Amino acid sequence: MPSKVAIAVVESNGHFLVGIRPDGRPLAGMSEFPGGRCESDETPRSCVVRECREETGLVVLPQKHLATVGHSYEHGTLELHFWKCCLAPDYDAMAEPAAPFAWVSRDQLSEHDFPPANDEVLQLITSSD
């Protein structure tokens, strides 16, 4: 049974929250959107809010489910739930996230090395206005 993972694709002013996976973790050195494994009693929608707050220090509002992608990696089989999110209204448009996350422009996303399971969503967000 695949692990359920929720991913927050947070956009603000044409920029996206992107981090680099730390050493010692699967896919270390690759770029990632904030997210993580859903707890047993948690929906992917609520998981993106929790994970984004834990990883970046920012509170987000899920707006739209973008895709559910199944992918098998060497470290396991995942069911990834991607959610388009925005910052909560009390934040400035480019509020400073906790490291290793930073704001990356839509044009700069192609310069980052994301895991293959992100391909469909990257295509969606780089082709939209």
Q: How would you describe this protein?
A:
It is globular, with a radius of gyration of 14 Å. The termini are far apart. It is 16% helix and 40% strand. The protein contains two helices and seven strands, in the order ββββαβββα. It has a single domain, classed as Nucleoside Triphosphate Pyrophosphohydrolase (Alpha-Beta Complex), CATH 3.90.79. It is of the alpha+beta class and 129 residues long. The mean pLDDT is 93. It has helices at 44-56, 119-126, and strands at 3-12, 15-20, 31-32, 35-37, 60-73, 76-87, 102-105. The longest helix is centred in the middle third of the chain and has 13 residues, at 44-56. A hairpin with a 2-residue loop joins strand 1 (3-12) and strand 2. Strands 1, 2, 3, 4, 5, 6 and 7 form a seven-stranded mixed sheet that branches.
Secondary structure layout plus pairing:
Layout: E1 3-12, E2 15-20, E3 31-32, E4 35-37, H1 44-56, E5 60-73, E6 76-87, E7 102-105, H2 119-126
Parallel strand pairs: 1-6
Antiparallel strand pairs: 1-2, 1-4, 2-3, 2-7, 5-6
